[in-house]
C-alpha cells in the first residue's frame, strides 16, 4: 500500500490492514481549501502533523468542517519536498496505546504545503494570495520558542532579524519578518480580520509572538517603510488578535519498531529521512494518545469549531492558569520525576 491519493483508492486493502481512512473526499476537500483558505499553519513538523492537523481531520470526518489546513515551513524546506509533496500531503498517524496496541490513521487534513522562501518567488506569491483572501480566519504556529526570537542572549539582534528590519517587508528571511510582511500584504489588499495564534509550548506564547511582530513592524515604521495605519491595524483596531494557548503533546522521533510494523502491514515507503537541516522525520508520526490544547477564544474573523475536536476554549486568564497548572503541578513535574 502506498501513501498517496492514488494509493487511497484501494480502501479495502487499507481497511483490511486496520488503518482508518478519511471519511470525506480528500481531493475535493484539498481543492476547496486551496480555492478558499481558512487556516494557515507555520511549522510543518511532527506536533503539527500528529496533533494540530488531526484536530481538523476530526472535524472533517464528522462533517463539522469542509476545508483543511495549508502548511508552511520557514526553515526546513526539505520537509515540504520530501515529506509533504512526495506523499500528496498525507501523513500516517500511529497512536501508541497504553495496552501496547497501536492505532493507525491516514491524516489528510493538510491540503497544501508551501515554503516561505524569498528565493522561491512562486511560493511567496502563493502565500501572498492566501493572505489577501478575506476568508482566511487564522494563522497558527508550532515553530518552537526559538522561532520567535529576534535577539541573541547578549541582546544584540540575530542577523536575519536585523536584515529584515533594515530592508523592509520585501524579501524577509526570519520567520517573524516573513509573517509581518504577509500581514502587511493582508492589510494593503483586504484589511480583513485575522487571528494570529501561537500553539508553541512556551509560557505566554501569544505575547511572545506579538512582541516579535511588533518590534519588526515598528522598525519598518521608523524607516518609513510601512504606514502608521498598519501598526494600528495590528495593535488597536481589534481586527488582528494574538490569542494565548497552552499545549501538551509528546511527539518523539520516528520509531524503527513502528516503521517495521507498518512494513509488516504492507505499507511501503515509510523510511525516515534526515533533512539538510538535520531534522529526523518520516511519512508517519508515532505518539502517545494523551494531548491537550487550551486556546484563548479571540478570533475576530471566526474559526473552525475545534471544541468539537477536543480543544478547550476560554479567556486569557483560563489559558494562563492552565499553563501554570501544567508547568508547576500536573504534567512537567511528573515528567521530570519519571526521567530522573
Care to give the gist of this entry?
The chain is an alpha/beta fold and 340 residues long. The chain contains 13 helices and 15 strands. The protein has one domain: Rossmann fold, CATH 3.40.50.720.
Q: Provide the β-strand percentage band.
A: 15-25%
Category from helices, strands and their pairing: alpha/beta
**Count of helix runs:** 13
What shape does the CA trace take?
globular
Give an account of the 3D structure.
The strands form four sheets. The protein has a six-stranded parallel sheet with strand order 6-3-2-7-8-9, sandwiched between helices. It is globular and about 60 Å long. It has helices spanning 5-8, 11-16, 26-35, 46-62, 77-84, 121-131, 159-167, 175-189, 205-222, 228-235, 256-264, 316-330, 332-339, and strands spanning 19-20, 39-42, 69-73, 91-96, 102-107, 110-115, 138-141, 194-198, 240-241, 245-248, 273-274, 280-281, 284-288, 292-296, 312-314. A hairpin with a 5-residue loop joins strand 11 (273-274) and strand 12 (280-281). The mean pLDDT is 96. Helix 7 (159-167) packs across helix 9 and helix 9 (205-222) runs antiparallel to helix 10 (228-235). By secondary structure, it is α/β, with parallel strands linked by helices. It has a single domain (5-315), classed as Rossmann fold. It is built from 13 helices and 15 strands. 45% of the residues are buried.
